[in-house]
Amino acid sequence: MSVLDLAAGATRRDETVEIVLLLAFAGGYIDAYTWIIHGVMANAQTANLIFLWVYATAGNWTRALHFVPPLLAFTSGIVIAAWLRRIAGERASAISTLLEILLLIAIGILHNRLPDLAGTLGISLVAAMQTAIFTRVEGVTCSTVMITGNLRQGIETVFVAAAGAAPPGTLRRSSILFALCAMFGFGAAAGAFATQAIPRLALGIPVVALLVVLLRCEASHQSAVQ
Fold first, then answer.
1. What residue ranges define each of the domains in the chain, with the CATH number in brackets?
2. Is the pLDDT confidence value at 134 over 70?
3. Which of 176, 180, 220 has the alpha carbon at shortest distance from 2?
């Protein structure tokens, strides 16, 4: 049994390594898709904000305003996720994943008719909900939609281990965080390839990944209830 396959024990069902790795794949995939198709980032709102001000200071307001809709959609997604956590509690992860699946299916259907609306608004909404709902792996803070924080934590934990002051489980945590970075990159590569090879069907792949996440969350919930 590998370090990433150990039983989760008391870990929340939406914080298991399997689920978080699948979400990281979907996060990288969707970001690559949105960048190639729409020229904006679904997850990395820092980049959208930077591009907005770069073009605004150059006086290119048409190009600058191109980055406003994903920022607003991301904000809306965070609000929806916060509302879900308040009313649904532990069920919020499953409900959020189901909504993400339905939104991606709708985006895939509407994309040919309303490409900008479906892409920049819908996908950023999906990314925001995933960001706000899935925030930990085995109790450790992480991100499934960008790698900066994961990479920092992974490097820090390796340093602590090398310094000889590492508490139990430190190397396991670092391996999980590095695996998240790798899976995000793999998702981005897969998203870039599929978006160019099968643009009309490309969103089907993250839908499958999210469907597996939903089924795993529900299976764990049923086991806990029994």
1. 15-218 (1.20.1250)
2. yes
3. 176
